[in-house]
Design a protein that fits this description.
The structure is a single chain. This protein is α/β, with parallel strands linked by helices. It has 2 domains: about 5-200, HUPs (Rossmann fold), CATH 3.40.50; about 230-345, Rossmann fold (3-Layer(aba) Sandwich). Helices cover about 30% and strands about 25% of the residues. The chain is built from 11 helices and 15 strands. The protein has helices spanning about 25-40, 55-60, 75, 80-95, 95-100, 115-130, 185-190, 240-255, 260-265, 295-300, 330-345; strands at about 5-15, 40-50, 65-70, 105-110, 130-135, 140, 145-155, 160-165, 165-175, 195-200, 230-235, 255-260, 285-290, 310-315, 325-330. Helix 4 (about 80-95) packs across helix 6 and helix 8 (about 240-255) runs parallel beside helix 11 (about 330-345). The longest helix is centred in the middle third of the chain and has 14 residues, at about 115-130. It is elongated and about 65 Å long.
Length: about 350
């Protein structure tokens, strides 16, 4: 393992057209600063895109050691499509100016844990010969001083800690994740440099044209699963399509969306676009109401481990109860109509 001062933590900040000039979340930026302080390493940030102003200010306010900003005509045309963004990031990271000032044995690039950023991270790893770590729950130093990442596997029922060797890594961090350091806030603040070294790299390479995107009308009028804070989900135990009609009704009352397990989709009670699980979608709602779902590992793999689960099942031995914050043993045909009526008052 390399010495601590040869570890670099770099937040990748995308200010693309679909984000405008608003800094939505600073998880990666704050994590880079906190981890560098803990390791006595280097905190950096890379900003790419036309809406870079607020990200630049945020990075300077936190006191990162180095701030890299891509400039030039190519960046002003940077759209939200992953191939274009990766082209710009790779051009910056492989530029002589960037390479001449980076001699760290270990580099950890930090990106947001969402579908767009993770696709960018995976594509970027190919260009810069990095190891994509995927979603990480925690990044720490172990007792020997080695850099380690902790990840959630098997639908959140198991955590695995990996020790990183020297090299380039790309880690995805969930928004709102806080990184705990071993230093007090006063010492951490004192450990940061008095100012940020600002680097501008002009990118002159061509930007690949936008891929054609065809927007199709939605096949159904119910709320989409993407971004839903509350999800009502039905499984094999519902037993009929009528149960899903009631799930849609309650979801509409609560401002949520509806999902289904694989057996329910196979039975034709819900469209495949609403399937959650290992072979379906991965969702991150605040609350997940599982109705007639047993809780197999394949299904739970599609639910973020930080989601609060409410289970309704007539089988008191159903595995879902072991993962639920609230469990109700009973028949959905009695519980759901009562819930819908209560929501009308």
């Amino acid at each position: 393992m390399s010495t601590h001062n040869s570890i670099r933590f770099c937040a990748i900040l995308l200010a693309t057209e679909n984000q405008g000039n608003v800094v939505h979340d600073q998880t990666c930026l704050r994590a880079a600063q906190a981890l560098a302080t803990q390791c006595a390493g280097t905190a950096e940030a890379i900003v790419v895109g036309p809406g870079a102003g607020e990200w630049i200010q945020a990075a300077c306010d936190l006191g990162v050691d180095h701030l890299w900003v891509a400039t030039g005509e190519a960046t002003t045309r940077c759209a939200s499509q992953a191939p274009q963004v990766v082209d710009l990031l790779a051009s910056l990271m492989l530029s002589p100016q960037y390479l001449q000032t980076t001699s760290h044995a270990t580099t950890v690039y930090l990106i947001d844990a969402d579908a767009t950023h993770e696709e960018i991270g995976a594509r970027l790893a190919v260009h810069i010969d990095a190891l994509p770590l995927g979603r990480c729950q925690q990044i720490t130093l172990d007792e020997s001083g080695a850099l380690c990442v902790t990840q959630s596997v098997f639908g959140g029922r198991l955590r695995v800690t990996r020790r990183l060797s020297a090299g380039i890594h790309i880690a995805a961090l969930r928004q709102g994740l806080s990184v705990q350091t071993t230093q007090s806030p006063e010492k951490a603040h004192a450990a940061r440099p008095p100012h940020t070294t600002h680097h501008q790299i002009t990118l002159t390479g061509p930007v690949r044209p936008d891929l054609p995107v065809l927007t199709l009308p939605r096949a159904e009028q119910h709320a989409s699963l993407e971004g839903a804070k509350l999800v009502m989900s039905g499984g094999r135990g519902i037993g009929c399509e009528a149960g899903f009609t009631l799930l849609y009704q309650i979801a509409d009352q609560l401002g949520g969306a509806v999902s289904a397990s694989l057996p329910a989709v196979d039975a034709g009670w819900a469209p495949i676009a609403r399937q959650v699980g290992q072979s379906g979608k991965y969702i991150r709602p605040d609350i997940y109401v599982a109705v007639g779902i047993s809780g197999t590992p394949q299904h739970m793999a599609g639910i973020d481990p930080h989601t609060r689960i409410v289970a309704i099942n007539k089988d008191p031995e159903a595995p879902i109860f072991n993962m639920a914050q609230l469990g109700i043993v009973g028949d959905w045909e009695t519980i759901l109509p009562a819930l819908s009526e209560a929501l009308k008052t």
